[in-house]
Design brief:
Blueprint: E1 3-8, H1 16-30, E2 34-39, H2 62-73, E3 76-82, H3 90-99, E4 106-107, E5 116-117, E6 123-129, H4 134-139, H5 144-154, E7 160-167, H6 175-190
Parallel strand pairs: 1-2, 1-3, 3-6, 6-7
Antiparallel strand pairs: 4-5
Helix pairs in contact: 1-6
């Protein structure tokens, strides 16, 4: 079966993003997949890259090194996160800034405008919670964070986008609506990889 890494990318604990990640994980495990779950809220690291050159990159803290090792281990990477101000939470963006480095996630090649993708052979899926209705996110806002996440972060490093799933609107939902969203995340986990 498939090795799946799920990152609950909400910077707080006890969130609906975490519940979606858990539902996905549980259902993927019942299908025989090997699943590891990481929680952004439990990681301790400086999200600020803090230097102007990749060659001066600070060493990875233990939590970031463990997450990087899991990304290398996995065949399918799932990120569950809230949409904040049209983008990723700062701490989650900091994870990508810190661990997706040249020589590890991508490599510049002399004479070529785009780098070699070092994480090829893996797929990725994104679960996003939002108070913005999905249609408004797509048609009015232009889904900028989707493009950034799929093309300029995951795809840039070779992770092939497999799905970008909006769970919205969250604000004002009743228990039955949230139960349907959780069931949808579970169905995605059953169909994983």
């Amino acid at each position: 079966m498939t090795r799946i890494l799920i990152l609950d990318g909400h910077p707080a604990s006890g969130t609906f993003c975490g519940a979606l990640a858990g539902e996905y994980a549980g259902n993927a495990e019942t299908r025989g997949h090997e699943v590891r779950v990481r929680h952004l809220c439990a990681t301790d690291f400086n999200p600020d890259f803090g230097v102007s050159r990749f060659k001066d990159a600070p060493p990875l803290e233990p939590d970031l090194q463990a997450l990087w090792d899991d990304i290398v281990w996995c065949e399918h990477f799932v990120v569950s996160h809230p949409l904040w101000w049209g983008g990723l939470p700062a701490k989650l963006k900091g994870v990508f800034d810190r661990i997706l480095l040249p020589g590890k996630a991508f490599q510049y090649v002399a004479g070529k405008p785009l780098p070699e993708k070092l994480l090829k052979g893996r797929t990725a899926e994104v679960l996003v919670t939002s108070d913005t209705p999905g249609w408004y996110f797509r048609w009015i806002y232009g889904a900028g964070v989707r493009k950034q996440t799929e093309k300029q972060i995951l795809g840039f490093c070779g992770l092939k986008p497999k799905g970008y799933h909006m769970f919205s609107p969250i604000r004002g939902t009743q228990e039955r609506q949230r139960a349907k969203m959780l069931a949808r995340a579970g169905a995605l986990g059953r169909k994983a990889a």
